[in-house]
Write the structure tokens for this entry.
Amino acid sequence: MGWRVRITGGDFKGRSLKTAVGPGLRPAMAKARQALFSMLEARGLDYPGTLALDLFAGTGSLGLEALSRGAAAAVFVENYPPALRAIRDNLKQFELGPGRARVEAKDALAYLRGQAKQAFDLIFIDPPYGRDLLGQTLALVAASGFAAPEALIAAEVEIRVDPEKLSLPGAFRLLADRRYGQTRMLLWRHETPASPSTPEPSIP
């Protein structure tokens, strides 16, 4: 039996997601998702026109939450068969066709090593715990062209991950570091050389 997960905002608010069980699968819980999207919206995320990338998508709860709230389109990257089935079932039940959602049945790092066909405004990174994948993933995002100028990159990782110890490209500026139980939510902005260097306002 899978996790009990519901969409927390937007057009699909309150609707249940199909989930899957397996190694490393742990859909983002409602409180953490609500907090994450509040942080994104407080920092100017404008959903219309937003292209979202959900890496290590699991059953797709983050990308689906973005679509529910008005994101133009989302790509879900996952390679675990039960999770892929759950993502596809969810897209079908919400009637999200190829114009708004696409599934890439690939390992997330392998996907990022490929050629970027588009740049994303919003990137979710939710890697399996205990495998130290965050730093590698961020480095590939920075080098690959998958992040649009001023893109927001959100990561959900285990509490022990210290963003100050990650060797990150200078293009990433940490905007938020929040803890929810055993989960740590981190948020960066992908800055270009022309981006303003004024400090972010102090917001939750």
